[in-house]
Structure formats: structure tokens, C-alpha cells
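Question thread 4412

I'm putting together a teaching handout and wanted feedback from people who do this every day. The idea is simple: show students a protein as raw sequence, then show them the C-alpha cells that encode its fold, then repeat with a second protein so they can compare. Below is the first pair exactly as I plan to print it.
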Amino acid sequence: MVYKSPGAYARFVKTATAVSSAGATRVMAIVGTGTMFYNAANEGISRSAKQSSDALANGNVFEVHSVTSKPLYQGLVVSGSVEYQAGIDYDLIGGKYIAWKTKEDEDSQPGTGIVAGSSTGSSKFLNYVTALVDGNNGYLVQDGNYRVEITYVDSALGAYRVIDESTQEVLGEYGISATAVDVIPGIKLTVSETFVPKMTGTPPTAVLDADGNPISDTTVGDYVIVSTRAGKAVDTAPAAGSAYYVSYTFKKPEEQFVPKVFYTYDDVVAEYGNYDVTASGKIINSIALGAEIAFLNGTVPIVCIQAKSDSDYEMKQAIDKLTRPVLGIENINTVVPLSTSKSIGSHAANHASDMSLPTNGKERMTYLAAEVGESVGVSSSTAKSLANERVIYVVPGSVTKDIKDLRTGKSNVRTLPGCYLAVAVASLGLKNDPAEPLTNKSINGFKDLNQLYTESEMNLMAESGCLVMRQTGSVIKVRHGVTTSTVDINSQEITLVQIRDYVIAAARQSLGESYVGNKLRPTIISDIQSALISLLNQFKGQEVILNYGGINVKRSTEDPRQVDVKFEIEAVYPLNFIDISFSFSGVS
């Protein structure tokens, strides 16, 4: 028997009556690129009194621009400030540490010493403990004392813990091994044994217990003290405890490449940087541009997921991160990859289909776009190959937009790929209720479409499953809001898929949260039915559906822990056609 996690499950069942079930398209996810590097200016650091290096606030430091005794002013070294020199006064090590050069005499180099505790066993234990300065990480060595204490004694196994004597913090517990551990900063610590046989006689022989087993000369609590000495920085380094200032560039850390929720464009720019579009059409920080268009067309909030590059591989990796829940968001309903790559589009289509399965319960759609200059024939064949009610294919493949140069303040007309049109179109489905047609709705933020089609070309592409944009004067509108599915009306119209998703998601959430985990008593059947009727009446009042019927709530005959719920809805269909007939009247 296949396991199912507790919860409410919902699916759309195609019946003879024209019924749609749907998840409300309310949150858009934009997948694209953003800044990979950040600048930290005048980060104040207090020179350590315990070691010859200081940690920067950020890791992955790519380049240190300056280290000075006073903060820079407008990027310049001020009068009276000491400017420390890389390679002479300090080195950047490990992408995080300012390691000050140390004096060359032996007493100024980092070092260690080990002494045993007062017990006899501690003296024996001392012979099996080594602590050596790690040649690669000597800059981390601190002035300090560390207790290495036996916690388990056994002839085959053994364990010990390491305690910082200054704070009494237990830094870690380890098993005996010939391999060194990095628990003490800058030190390779090796403890090879905690069981030291007790010896007697000449020549020495092991003392045995009554069962003939060796007796240990060490016991739990025996310890040694490892003393460490930091390197002494050169005289040109800042004095211990004094402040100095570092300006540097660091790479975005791995943990930041996750989906994030945004409510304002300024927050997006703060995270991913301002966008720019070059004369050749190269887009810098595509997420910021996509977010601007989404907010301009009325979508709030949006989820952004940064790919490490615009390559097919990295974009697919970013899309895959949307399979996991995003904090603060019930569901991502629409995914728009900021790319016109066919491979990325196919991946996004598969993602939307997989997430929309009843077992995943995360109904979503994806909006894709034609490539720049794509022909009518290629667009038509691409839409036919996608043939998916959860995929929208927007044409044409490019559009112009006035892009402001942040350096000069001057606006230039730049050509954008069609994926930015897709962002605007997807916004129409998000800002309105799910039953509001996209057809004949205008989008904002653009200047001109780069391709204009004849009526026959638009009909051909729409019949194949393309969502065609048209322009009249300065207004750009959706000609017909269709998916790439041409099977039937219920899967062709975007709003019918949205209604279906909206109803499914709401029914699953409402009934699941209210009743799953309760006792399956006889009265709960009528309770579930009443709750469902109330929910469907709300949808009627919101004009998301026209009517409903066929409600059937009963206990499952296959699983005594399950209640089966069935119902039908009458969807609100879009008004797409008005057929006008007229004639001349006869002469009287």
C-alpha cells in the first residue's frame, strides 16, 4: 500500500459537464541573474590582542581595496591616515582574514606547548597527545590554553573533549585517531590513545585484572593543557585594540542563492543591484529589470530566485529550488524564467507540471517567450511541441523599452527579449481575480513591439497555442489569453486553468486545515459538506464561479481514514467573441 501523508488531496476530474478547478494565481516567481559581488566600504575592525589576524564580517572576499588607520572619505585616503600595504604589512588569507605579517625571529612565530595535569594518568596521557602549528593556518593561532580531557577509556576505543580554559566552553568531543583535528584555532591536534596499560616489573609487563585483561594507567578526567602562542605582528601593524578600516569586494555567499520574497522594487535592487541594458542588448542583473516590470504591472509580492549565471545549467538549478517551500508564501503560482532558451523553457514546463500533480499540491503555471526574431513558423511549432495547459508561450520575441542610464540620467531605447513581455502578461493573471480574462488587457512599461503580424499570422500562431501580443498606437495588449494546450476550451483559456487551480487550492487548504487530524465521527461528514458549500458560495459572490453542484461527501469505502469529496463548478467563461449580423431593410 502506497503511503500518503495526512492532508486534504484534490484533483480536477474531467466530466461531461464543463467544470474547471483551479489554484489562484497570486504569486509570481522570477528566475534570473543578479549581482555576484558586493562592496564593503570602511568596515571598522578592532585589532586583535590574541592573534596575528582579524576576521572580516564577510567571507568570499575577492579583493581588498584598502586597509587604513582612518576611514576613507569619498573613496580617498584622508590626511594623517596610514595606508597599510598588501604583501608587505598584511595578506588576505582564506577570503576572510587580514593576516598581519609576523616578525621573523623564532620567539615571534606562532607556537605551542603541552603540560600534563597533576595526576599520574595525565602524565601517561601526555605521551599520546601532539599539538602542532598548522603551517597553512598559523595566522589563526591565538594566545590561549586548552584542556584536552579524557572522557572514555577503552583498550580499543577512546574519547576526549577539548575545553577553552578562558571561557570553559567545550569546543568539541572526538574519538581517538591518528588523524589530526582542527578544534584549536591554527593547531593540528592529534590524540592517538586514551588507554595506557599499567606496567610493572623489569622488564615492564602489563598489569592484568582478575579476568586477565590489561588495566589502564589512565582514567576519565585525566588531562593535558595545550598552550598556544600567537605570532607577533610586525611593528608597522596597528597596535592591539586599535581600530582600522578595510574596504573590499566579496562574492555573494552560497546560502544567498535561495528564493526570496519582495514587496518593493527598492528592496529588489538592494539585494540584486540595479539593472542595465547595453546597446548590444546585454542585460545586467536581469532580476531587477523583471521585478520592475512585474511591480509596474501590479504584481505584489514577487519571489525572486537568482541563478549564478544565465547558462542553461544554472538557470535550471535555480528553477529546481522552487520545488521547496518559500517562507511567507503559501504557493508560487507562476514561474517566469528570464531567458528565451528552449531548453530552459522545457525545464520550466516540466517543473510546472510536476508541481501541479495532486501528490505535490502546488498548482502553478509558467510563462515562456519566443526568441528574438523568431519566425511565425518556429513560434507555432514550439507552442505545438509544448502543448501544455500550464505553459503560456508569448510572442513576439522582442520589445523595446526606454532604459535610463543611471550614470548620465539619459534614457535610451533598448531591445529586450520576449521573456520580459512574459513577465508583464503573467502579472495580468496575478493582479486580477483568477476569472478575469487576460484577453484585450494592456500591459505597461514598454515602448514598441519589434514584430507586428498580419491577421492570418496571428490566427495561425494562436491556433497553435501562442499568446500573441498586438500593438495599436502606443498601447500593447494581449490579443487572446491562451495556453499552449489546444485540446479543449477548458485547457486552452488561461482563466479556466486559473479558476481550476484557485478552487482546488482553496478547497484543499480550507478543508485540510479545519478537519484533518480530527476524529472521523459521523457528524464530520455534514460538517465538511457545510464548509465546502460555504466556500463555494464565497466563490460565487466573488464571480470566480457562476454556480456549483453535484456535491457528494462520504466516507471512503477503500480507506476508513479517508473522506471522499466530489463536486462540480460552473466556470465563468471569458467573453471572446461577439458575432454581429445585419442587413439592409427593404424599401417600403
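The second pair follows. I'd like the answer to focus on this one:
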Amino acid sequence: MVLDDDARRQRGSTSSVQLRPNSATATADTRATLGAAAHITVMSTQDVALTISTDQIHSWELVGIVLIVLAAGLTWITRKHRWLLSAERARAVHACRHDTLTGLPNRALLADRVGQALRTNDRAGTPVALLLIDLDRFKDINNAFGLHYGDGLLTQIGPRLAGVLRKQDTIARLGGDKFVVLLPTVTSVADATAVATQLQVALHAPFRVHDIDLDVEASIGIVVSDAHGQDPTTLLAHAEGATDVAKDHNLEVCTYDPSIDRSSPAKLVLSGDLRRALEQDQFVLHYQPKVTISSGAVVGAEALIRWQHPQHGLLSPDAFIPLAEHTRLIGPLTRHVLDTALAQAAIWARAGQAVPIAVNLSARNLADDHLPEQVAELLTAHQVPAELLQLEVTETAVITDPAQAQHLLQQLSDLGISISLDDFGAGYTSLNQLKTLPISELKIDRSFITTMTEDRSNTLIVRSVIGLGHALGLTIVAEGVENQHTLTALAAYGCDIAQGYHHTRPPHRRQLHHLVHQPPHPSTDPALT
């Protein structure tokens, strides 16, 4: 039996079974059985269809849930990524504007804050101050204890300084052992100086680094806007110049002074000229006689260098020696002076006038381990006995590195050269150093001599130094003797030798030999050497 068309149309879409019996004579039981089977088949297919439709609905719901979860995940990942990028950008910006070791603002951030303070205070009419702090002998700490001790000290400087500053003040590290304090509002240079003094007091307390107490000294340079500059770059440059002067003169605090700033454009040009002057032999030596007070006889001469500058004329040492000391030119310049002076000593000696010549050494020269060898070579080259050469060193040069100075001066003394301690009283030489240094002569600083007849305290100092020097077996020389009254007083105190324009101004080499073996006539020229 073939299912009729209506039944096929109703069930064909869902039934997967079609019965097509070949026998037209199928029994009623067979028809019943087939009908039942067909019915069962149709009903089972409907159930499957319903099941499939239900599963499809559940699948779409699952897909929707998965998509929602993925969207949420992507949103979280995107936000997390943006947050990480923002944090990384913030760290990069902070690193670019802060010192890695101390966490303090660096030069870039300091310049930005100085600029902001200048713009703000320009409207208010109040100045801005910068205090540049340079730790003294910081290298010695690194060399003695190691870099980790030096780093440990540097990390403590900022918190120590912050203890005496206001919240609006900025502490920055320029690098190395240099720090800068920005005072965004000050009333005057005196105000800034008072703060610098407080910072010095704070730094004097020992720093506990690991298991050691370290003592720190510092030189502070001060600049104030309007008076010393109008922009961050100029103010920082001038602050460094003031700090250099403070270190050179062993000052705790120094305010910028353009007249002694070796980094000024004029000084930089002069520094370039200095190198060419050595190459073109533009330096000349004048010789100031050293006269025995008791007899007036010339017993020696000090070689005083002058620069015959093509444009500026004859320049005194104060105009160019500081420049040479802070470049590599001080060594060649000193060798030039020694060479010229010994050549002149040889000429006088061959003429029967053996005159000991004194040559000045700088602190940089005392750091040159090759100096004794060079001096010995020059003595041999000019065939001059060592006793005709005297080397003068200042107290300041000695105390820069006492151990090195002691070692090098002893080597020079072992060559037979006389050593003189110059400008005594102006520095900080201890009596123990004075006792151990291989010196034979002590020169009293001219600042005491020129005012000793008017200032009783200076009179007492001069008398005391003369007595102390004689007790140690030293010859005493007074510098800056410019009148008879001073010379008479020195004679009464027992001073041995005098230098100054009371006797004569420093003559050229061709004139000095006329003064040897005869008392020179006093000069009325008040000019300084």
C-alpha cells in the first residue's frame, strides 16, 4: 500500500521512511502493522526535530554568553594594557626628570622649576636664588671605602638638606657630588647667604653610612636672579663659577662675582689665548729682590711671571694663573718658568753673581708625581746647583692634599732644593704640619705686614710668627714691605728678609745684576706685585 498524497504531504517532511509494499493483497494485520510502524516513525522524527530545535536555541544562548565573556575580557585586557602603558610612560617621564640614585630632581627638572619661579617672581618683583653645593674630597671617600659607601652618602644628602628648607624649596642633584637648592622666593643675597650657612651647619653633622660615620665638608656658591642672571642656564653657570671660587679659596660660602668668574666669555677667550702664548713665548719673568733687613744686601730673587699679551698689554699673574690652574696648562707653564729662571741663574752664576731664584708652585703642581724628575732634568740641563733654586708653595696648596704635598716636597728637598712656605697665616696649616714639612723658609702673608703698624693684632701675629719660625730653625721673610716704618718694626722683631716696593719694584733680568752685592735705593712706586 502506498500512502496517499495527503498523508505524504503531512508526514513526508518529517518522516525518513516510505513504505511501498509490492503486494496489493496485504493482509489487514500487515496494514495495521505497517500503519503502526509508519505512525511510530513519524512521531519519532517529530521528537527529533523538536530536540534539534531546542538544542539550537541553547547553542545560540551559549554563543551569546561566550561572546559577552570575550567582549568583557577584551575590554579588561585593553584597559589593563592602557593602564600599563600609562604607568610605564609615567615611570619614563619620572626617570627622565629625576636622579636614578637619589630620586631627587635632575638638571632638566631643576631648569624647568627655575624657569617657572622666574616667570612667577617676575610678576611679583621678588628674586630667585640658587645655592650650588659641591662636596669636598668626595673622591677620597670612594677611594678609601668603595663606591657603595659614596652612593650611600649621596642618598642621605637630600633628606639632610630638606630638614632646614621650606616645602616650596627644591633640592636637585646635578650629578657626581654636586647638588642645587632652589629658593623660589628670597628677599636679598643676604637672605640666601643665611640659608647657605644653615645648610653648612646641617652638613657638618656626621653621616652614618653602613657601619661608618663619615664627616662631610662642602663649598656653596650663591646666585640671585636679576643681580647674577635672568635665565636658568646663566644662573646655573654662574652658581658653578661661584662654587669653584669657594673651593679655590677654601671658603664655605661664596656669592658670584663676575670679576673673578673664569667661565665668563672674556675669561674663556683669554684661556684660548693662554695656550697660544705658551707656543709663541709671550711670557716674561721679572725678579723681585729678597733683601736682608740687617744689611740691605740682596740674597735672592723671586721670579714673577708676566704675560705680554698682544691686545691687553702686560698682565699680572692674577689675570691668568687661575685659568692655567684649572686647565692642563699649569704644568707646561710651570716648566716654562723653571726653564727660564734656571737659564737666567746659570747666566748670573757664570758672571760671578750666584743668586738663588725662587719659583712658585701651585696646588696642581704638587699633584704631579713627575715634577721632581722634571726639575732634576732642568737643573742638569742648565748646569745649575740645586742650592740656587728655591720652590715656594702656599699654605692653601699644601692643605689641598697634605700627604701628597709632604711626599713630593720631600723628594724635591732631597735634591738639595730649598722649600719656602708662602703666604703663611692666610691658610690653615697646623703646627704639626709646619713641624713635619721639609721647609727652610717661612714667608709671612702680606696682609699682616701692610697693616701691622696700624693694627695691633697684626703686630702681635707678626711677632709671634717670627718667634715661632726661629724656634723651628726657619728663615723668616716679610712680604709687602712698602715703607721705612714697617721695615724698622720688622728689624726690631728680628725678621730676617724683606720683600716689597720699599726697596725696589721687580726689575727685569738685565737690571737685577746691578742690585746684587749692593743695597738698592728705596722705591716710591706703590704698585703691587
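Top answer:
Good format. For the second protein you could add a caption like this: Residues 1-28, 30-46, 519-529 have pLDDT under 50 and may be disordered. The longest strand covers residues 298-309.
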